[in-house]
Amino acid sequence: MRILTLFLSLLLIIPLAACNNDSVQKLKVGEVAHTIFYAPLYVALSEGFFEEEGLEIDLTTTAGGDKTMTAILSDGIDIGLVGSETSIYVEAQGSTDPVINFAQLTQTDGTFLVSREKIDNFDWGQLKDSTFLGQRKGGMPQMVGEYVLKQHGIDPRNDLELIQNVDFANIASAFSSGTGDFVQLFEPTASIFEEEGRGYIIASFGEESGHVPYTTFMAKQSTIDENGEAIEKFTRAIYKAQQWVKDHKPEEIAEAISEQFPDTSIDLLTTVVDRYKSQGSFATDPILGEEEWVNLQNIMDEAGELPERIEHDVLVNTSIAEKVISE
């Protein structure tokens, strides 16, 4: 009798377990890079905000804007975290299934100007006649870099020697080996250089360029149409994380994302998070505003990389984020 009771109990438990498992929605997400700059995403993972929404996130690093967009278009991933300029490039090529920006994660450039020599009273004019080791041509870091230089009256083509033929992965090592008087670096490399005396952070391109939709979550329109509920849940989890980051100290944020960066010390994580948070790099909500969209295209246009002007409502969907925020 006890064996029969146990057997009947198992029959009841197994369907329930299967039902619960079926209720979890899986999303494949590709991030263009794995960086502290994306701290709110990792907070959403570590604090269980995706789980609260019944989502299971398969996160991979797709390493580069072109590769990330290819993964989106080929259904290799459901959602991509990448610069908004990539959606403009695809739309300009005549896409029949546009890639839509639905949730913003970072709202400033994430690079810093690092000098080889310590400069106590830096002025942008000091870059004239120098050698500047910039980022890859056509990418947001390089476009922002050129935009900021021009804002300070510096012609990147004539007033300095601009080097932009070094692969992203090799820029830091090229500077270490003696190339360039100044270099444009992401964190934590910039802070590591400063700690080791190999360079000095003297300016922030994020502060200089203002708000832009630097990295956003995007998906094909067909994906949003077919999986609207999952996209909304995803956006809600991101918003929870953004608010958590807004309300917590850099030390707490560093601790929350530490598992994502096992080779980086808590002290360095805290330094980088503090720098990004203090300059407003982390968006506090997922809405990508029209002013930011216009600023993005102005920067692309200034760099000669804007194929055509595209209206905000063509490639940006704010309704999902607005619904999540209003709840």
TrEMBL record:
<dbReference type="GO" id="GO:0042597">
    <property type="term" value="C:periplasmic space"/>
</dbReference>
<dbReference type="Pfam" id="PF13379">
    <property type="entry name" value="NMT1_2"/>
</dbReference>
<feature type="signal peptide">
    <location>
        <begin position="1"/>
        <end position="20"/>
    </location>
</feature>
<protein>
    <submittedName>
        <fullName>NitT/TauT family transport system substrate-binding protein</fullName>
    </submittedName>
</protein>
<keyword id="KW-0732">Signal</keyword>
<comment type="similarity">
    <text>Belongs to the bacterial solute-binding protein SsuA/TauA family.</text>
</comment>
